[in-house]
Design goal:
By secondary structure, the chain is an all-alpha fold. Among the domains are: about 45-70; about 80-180, no CATH class. The protein has eight helices and no strands. The longest helix has about 35 residues, at about 120-155. It is elongated and about 95 Å long.
Length: about 190
C-alpha cells in the first residue's frame, strides 16, 4: 500500500514543484541570536549629525500632522479649550452665521489709513465710526452668546451647558479665513 509522492501531494490539495525541491534556498536558516543581532540598532546613532537630522525630520512631520489635524478639527489635535461636542456645536453655529465682528480687522485697517490724512475732521469721523462699530460688534457678540446658550440648553440639557459665551464671541470676532479649527460648515448650515 505504498503511495507515490505525486498522489500524496494531490490528495493534500497542493502539488510539489520539482524545481523548488532540488534548488533549495541557498543558505542555512538564521538562528534566533543572529536575527536579534541584525535587528539591533543603537538608540543614538554614532554619527550625531545624521541622528540630529533624523530627529528634526521626525519632529517636523509630527508638527505638520498636528497642524493639518488642528485645521481639520480632529479632536485629538485640538487644544483642550476647543475639545468636546458642545464646543464643536458652538464652532459650527458661529461659522454658519455672519457676525458683525468679522469686519473689525478690515475696518481697523481703513481707520489706520484715515489717520494718515492730515484733515482732523476725517480722522475724527474714522475714530467715531470705529468706536460705533465696536459697540455694535459687542452687542452682536452678547446676542450670539445668549443664542448659543439657549440652543445648547435645548440640545444637551440646561444642567449640562458649559460656559461658552466668551468662546463664541472670540470666534465671531475673527475673520472666517483666520479661524482655527477651520470652519466645517457653510454659511446658513446651522447645526441641529
Amino acid at each position: 500500500m505504498a503511495k507515490t509522492q505525486g498522489s500524496t501531494g494531490s490528495q493534500a490539495g497542493y502539488e510539489l514543484n520539482e524545481d523548488s525541491i532540488s534548488s533549495g534556498k541557498g543558505h542555512p536558516t538564521p538562528t534566533r541570536k543572529e536575527k536579534q543581532a541584525a535587528r539591533k540598532r543603537p538608540l543614538v546613532s554614532s554619527d550625531r549629525t545624521v541622528a540630529r537630522k533624523q530627529a528634526r525630520e521626525q519632529m517636523q512631520s509630527q508638527r505638520e500632522r498636528a497642524r493639518v489635524g488642528l485645521a481639520a478639527g480632529e479632536e485629538k489635535y485640538l487644544p483642550i479649550r476647543d475639545r468636546g461636542p458642545q464646543k464643536r456645536y458652538v464652532r459650527d453655529f458661529v461659522d454658519a452665521r455672519f457676525s458683525i465682528g468679522e469686519l473689525m480687522i478690515p475696518l481697523m485697517f481703513v481707520v489706520i489709513i484715515l489717520t494718515f490724512i492730515p484733515s482732523p475732521e476725517v480722522q475724527t469721523i474714522g475714530i467715531v465710526a470705529l468706536w460705533g462699530f465696536f459697540i455694535v460688534a459687542i452687542a452682536d457678540s452678547v446676542f450670539l452668546g445668549f443664542q448659543v446658550t439657549r440652543r445648547l440648553a435645548a440640545k444637551y440639557g440646561a444642567d449640562k451647558v458649559e460656559k461658552v459665551r466668551f468662546y463664541a464671541a472670540m470666534r465671531a470676532l475673527q475673520l472666517r479665513l483666520m479661524r482655527l479649527p477651520k470652519p466645517q460648515v457653510k454659511r446658513g448650515a446651522y447645526p441641529v
